[in-house]
User: Fold these one by one.
Assistant:
Number 1:
Amino acid sequence: MSVYVDIRLRTGKFSLDASFQSDAGATAILGASGAGKTLTLRAVAGLQTPLEGKILQRGVTLYNSEQRIDLPARRRNVGYLFQDYALFPHLTVAENIAFGLKGREQAGQRESVSRMVDLLRLHGLEDRRPVGLSGGERQRVALGRALAPHPDLLLLDEPFSALDAPTRDSLVEEFISLREAIDVPMILVTHDVGEAYALAEHLVVMGGGRVLQSGPKAEVFHRPASPDVARLVGVQNIFNDVRAGSPVVVGVRAADMLVTSGPEPDATLNQTIDRGTQLLGRFTTDRGDQLVAELDRSRIADLMPGSRWRVEAREGTSLVWPASLGI
């Protein structure tokens, strides 16, 4: 088991009750702001002490309230990439990377820094300070600092959130390749489902300080356990319905909605949203449901606000949950 977490924690009025385990090389904790993602990560790192529970990494106990084990952060051999990178402004790139290597012989420090410079494509930047670096370069320096001590676990807190979209997309692709080179288990915190799906094999979905679902990414993405999980993994349409005479909650992704013209239209187009690679339409059905559907760009001339269409889920694409789970 790469990581096992089962903790209870309280800070101010916020209560965290997080429980999951993963044997994947990369685990993503996905959730909206305030879900408890970063607090969970800080507890694993030893920067926040739970009230009770257990944290294990590759069979090593990092925290166990019953056994009174609470390894300090410096003894957990965990690399941590903070959301704001937290580079030291007065230190050079090489000095920032070497910061976690204090106490080791100079030759070993130089070798580790050199390896990080090679691995993260930082050649020529060794003597620069953070103020002279781009956002992507600062991120790579912070990652080098986290990796230089050869950690047993790498923790990443929203590592791409501060970057512009082109830089973010480029670095996500780089990071996928980098994972093969570093071979270190990691836990990634993010609110971006695409980022989580690209970088991790295991998803932990959190909301309100609790784990809503945990499992292999394909299972969580294609079979969300509840409407709350469905929203977080990108299901835009969630509404009440009746199936086989029983009330249920139904979820359908925008890409799985079929928009057709012809007889018996049942929805009015309110707005089109052009995202460049995707054209979306917002509809109100005759029974009052608000739906989002992916549109055929070749028909954009007909897609005028106020126009009438038939909007329905493609066969076999609906997600269905008991009405008791709520909408």
Number 2:
Amino acid sequence: MTDSNAALVAHLFRRAGFGLRRIDRNRFPVDDYAALVELLVAPPTAKRDDQSSLVIDAGGNSLPVLDAALRDAQTSWVRAMVTTRAPLVERMVLFFANHFATAYMTSNHVDATALVHQQATIRKHVLRNFADLTHAMIDDLALACFLNNDRNR
């Protein structure tokens, strides 16, 4: 890989993912820039195997005490972002999770399971038609609960 190509690939992974790791150089065709862009935009369907129970190491950070299921879901998602074979998908899931803002609020019945399902809904539509994503989010339980849809008249 030439120096200019390496700089382009590194820039692409910073913008369309979460950076280029050494292992990504073996996973992706970094010598063929056009093929790499195509792979990021139209990734193969990947199985997600990150739903296992995870041990959390707080690392001395002062974070609020969270429900164990939420911590597991957050850790699982961060692990997916770092290890995914579809970094653009996970980057866009993060973007739209912020766009369709939902917060973990047990008082509104927005729990970790609802948030994980919301991520799955976003992931299903994220690189497709925005109108389909928007309609799917209208039916999303976490977003409806967060917006107090059960109390709207």
Number 3:
Amino acid sequence: MSSPKTAPLSNSPRARRDHAFEQWLATVRRVCGSFGAQPLSEHFSGRLQDLSCGSLRMSLAESDRLSLFKQQRHLDMERDRIFYTVLQLRGSSCVEQLDQRASLEPGDFALLDGGRPFSVDVSDQSRQISLILPSAMLDSGRQRVACARRVEAGSVLGKWARELILDAVANRERELKPVESEAMLTALVSLIKPAVCLGVDDDSLGHERLYVRACGYIDEHLSDEDLSPEQIARATGVSVRGLYRLFARHRQVVSQYIRNCRLDRCAAILRAGGMAAANLGALSYAWGFADASHFSLAFKKRFGESPSDYRRRHCH
């Protein structure tokens, strides 16, 4: 009995998806520059429309769930440093660059530095407008451009910038004159710049706020068995790498900070006495230590004496 015939590999759903995806990615590279990408679902459909007009270099991207990224190998192929303004029209996306990450909903936008690695993960049926801005229009003196920072749809600057981008897309149909497109680009940069450019002091203040937020989350979830840098980073709104950098600015290591906070909490319980302080084994397990011996060594290293001696000294 002959075996059933199978469809040619080139006709399989996976092959059709890969073909559609490669065509879409080729268009992205032609219009927007060198990128890498990875589809995140079994099926893929997408479209990219070049909306450029004069000084306005814009594109409309529609796609299913995928990850779009620039890595060092893509950066090496670029000549000019540019910034990408990503305006979310439909669906949602997550943009990440260096130590910053932001979730974008319809109407939100964020800036990405085309001269450094970044990634954009989009949901199903995502629709985005990408506007390319020359770096010379944003870089100025001691200010730093805050990339992957969400500019909310409801903010004044966010609303005006969004409306101007949509007007630019609509008016390209009548072929804007070069002087008109240049004026619109200058106006857009003037709106976007206050929302994304930080002075040195503002930058330090932003890091300090994130650090305080991370420490507050740790304090609230200190007894959670699954407390981890990944969990803290998600709650704080930074990448894991960014979380490590926040603590490094204070000459701290995240895991050591968590351990010290737990030891401090245990020391407070031992000073208070009572039932909670009676069983050192139960106390150590309750605050995330593998065993009483490990707890005792860590406690003595921090406070200079064993938990039992510490309890005895403070309770008698």
Number 4:
Amino acid sequence: MNDTPLAAFTRACQARVEAALDRCLPDAEIQPPQLHAAMRYAVLNGGKRVRPTLVYAAAQALGLAPQQVDAPACAVELIHGYSLIHDDLPAMDDDDLRRGRPTCHKAFDEATAILAGDALQTLAFQTLAESDSLSPAARVAMIATLSLAAGSRGMVGGQALDLAAEGQPLDQAGLETIHIHKTGALIRAAVKMATQAVPDLDAGIAAQLDHYAKCLGLAFQIRDDILDVEGETAVIGKTQGKDESHAKATYPALLGLEGARESADNLIADALRSLDGLGDGAAPLRWLAHYMVQRNH
């Protein structure tokens, strides 16, 4: 991705959201200092910021300035950060490393990690509620969108389904249900919150972008499964072979590697078709769609 328009766009989004996250996270010297240090450790750790980048890309497609969507970009990343802390805990995926360094519960302790995740979750909604760049109506809409995507009918529900499915036979429809919730819900929310920053947005355009995000979220997970089988570390941070060691169903296991690749390609083609008519402003969304199925880490 070096020296491409997507690389430049991604770097700009990463730098922007990193600075915004640094501002909204409590300083590590503020009481209670260990909790705040753990929150900053977990979030300001050089992640790829896929979800905030999608917020900014969707905003550009709609003619919005980046500063208009800093709050939802931060909020979705704070929810993602909290989910990673909790996913890494011994009772969940039991990971020792996250993005090349000790996971939050290893760097601090389990209790602090749990509380840091809890605090990041609530900070996400505080960030939306207090944004000066959003209208009151947009704030309420985004809070509703993110809470649904993060909760039992979204990400958390997907995690529960994933844990329950360990060692159980699962068909493709069941696997899609898990990942539409566990991985796809936040990706879909990232794009939807950008649309909610536009007053009276045409419902057809909102539906196009929502369909794009739905397809992208599932393709993202399929590509992660493929990379895990191929021996790479997945973007979402699972350690090599984790799904296999936990006896989890994957797309390559169900469809074979070539079948999984074909499914991801078809989803991306569908996502790209949903952007028809949006013009050059949607170029970053198109770049990101291609990247999702071509990435090698």
